[in-house]
Design a protein that fits this description.
Distance between the termini: 48 Å
Number of strands: 8
Strand order of the largest sheet: 1-2-3-4-5-6-7-8
CATH class: Mainly Beta
Low-confidence stretches: 4-22
Number of domains: 1
Structural class: mainly beta
Shape: globular
Helix content: 10-25%
Radius of gyration: 19 Å
CATH topology: Lipocalin
Largest sheet: 8 strands, antiparallel, barrel
Strand content: over 45%
Mean pLDDT: 81
Order of helices and strands: HEEEEEEEE
Amino acid sequence: MKQTVVLFMFSVIILLLAGCSGKNVQLEGKWKLTTDSETSGCFTRMSFLETGDPKPISVYERTDADDTYESFQVWFGVYVRQDDQLKIMFNEPKTDPFTMSISRNKNDLSVQYKWKSQLLTCSYSLEQ
């Protein structure tokens, strides 16, 4: 009986540790670009939903060249997830699919993707 309880507890701990691995990063929410992003050209905001399959995404891309007036292009689409990789498919307006690598640390999200022939590394914080 004692061995059964110990084996059961050991199994529960293993399952909990497996579920806490970085492979299942929670993305749901609205993310805002931080000032410490390494490259310009990053999406200024990203919104992820984790319902459905594929899952909805929307992003804001800043389109003006100066700080006097802010204008944005909003992109709507879906994403399919495989571990820490997202396949992004925008359908409004339509673009070619691309891959986004993700990493989350608490309320900070780091992403890397190629957009308009530029490799971007961007940092976001979760909006409260």
